[in-house]
Amino acid sequence: xxxxxxxxxxxxxxxxxxxxxxxxxxxxxxxxxxxxxxxxxxxxxxxxxxxxxxxxxxxxxxxxxxxxxxxxxxxxxxxxxxxxxxxxxxxxxxxxxxxxxxxxxxxxxxxxxxxxxxxxxxxxxxxxxxxxxxxxxxxxxxxxx
Length: 145
Known about the structure:
145 residues; 6 helices
């Protein structure tokens, strides 16, 4: 979500009644263990105001996504029809973020996973594989045609 470029596009595609959320460590770069981005909250908000007219429907979580529970997000934005996962690029964080997305998505919702095929970030595909191979996931995937 580097400075909100993809976030802003997705936000502009949201319905007027939908709320959006963004998660980034922003100024606490000690939590950015893989150095996969240098999020800056002021630049993010400036871009959001410049290109989307404001942040009335946006909830910011300035923290490590590994610290969030689905309830933390649901209580502020509800369930989601579209989620973009583009945070930490470790296998653990990717797996965690996919679990969060899974818990937040409505039936038929879509999750976009950034950098899955990026050779600079092989742990993204490793984390996704761990998520999809976890107990119970294989059964739920095979239930769908």
